[in-house]
Amino acid sequence: MTEYNQPLGGNELARFSGPNTFMRLPQAESAADLDVAVLGIPMDIGASWRSGTRFGPKQIRAESAMIRPYNMATGAAPFDRMQVADIGDLPINTFSLSDSLRIIRESYEAILTHDVIPVAMGGDHSITLPILRAIAKKHGPVALVHVDAHADVNDEMFGERETHGTVFRRAWEEGLIIPDKTFQIGIRGSGYAATDFTEAQGWGFRQFPAWDLWHKSLRDLGAEIRRDIGDRPVYVTYDIDSLDPAYAPGTGTPEIGGLTTPQALELIRALSGLKIVGCDLVEVSPPYDPSGNTALTGANLLYELICVLPGAAA
Ligand code: MN
Ligand code: MN
User: Fold this and answer.
1) Which protein residues have their CB within 5 A of the ion that is ligand 2?
2) Which spans in the chain are helix H?
3) Does some domain include residue 207?
4) Domain with 124 in it: what CATH number?
5) How far is the CA of 164 from the centre of ligand 1 (A)?
6) What is the pTM for the complete model shown?
7) How many domains is the chain built from?
């Protein structure tokens, strides 16, 4: 019988001590023999406005120390059924975005030689493109659940084609995602042109702007997405700025009028049963997060994502 790793409990060792791993899980040297590998990608050189997401993984890990193993709302007991560990941070090159994206892709290709689900703590959103390159190499084009204030479908920024604002245009161009199984949820804010969002609808992307979701439960939308994706492999990318800045102020490009924390929980919980092959939580910027609330929220959303991975459900 497998001995599953357990998060170090608050009654075993005071929560403010011990290892700075996600939920104080054991640290593993590699993804071998794991069902789920949590990892950090401490990077902010793909961001266009405020920086600071290089400190995201460290702060998310710190805030995750308070999370307990059992999900009281859903009954999920992920650490009773899956082998989960924190495999540390990827060794990005903070002086070169393009080299960092190469390192991320190659690291993911190595991780994905194992039968493991990688769960990434960003980092700015530029990390998701090399992740999707590696994911698609293994699984083929994937369905995508993309929760974000921004569509991230710019063509270029300052002439650069790989930034945190161009990720999903590149992913579409490179055939990494299934366009009509790509769901963008929570988009809003002001644009450079009136067509900023709608061009991607022409590629097949399904968009759910925040203003259409205000005051509504996201349970039905989540269930609709789950039905629509069916048994296809799916990647979930969660930009913390999808939440309203009232809930998640510590981020690089905040937009008012966002989703609420209960909506985020409803959406993630509705994805249970999908064949999730990887996920990330990006854009937590601790220097803009003096209370730690954004990192705390990010840590909890990662925990909720782990609770809906295949193999976690009761
Ligand atoms: Mn984004
Ligand atoms: Mn965003």
Assistant:
1) 148-150, 239, 241
2) 56-64, 78-81, 97-111, 128-139, 167-173, 198-203, 219-229, 261-270, 293-307
3) yes
4) 3.40.800.10
5) 6
6) 0.98
7) 1
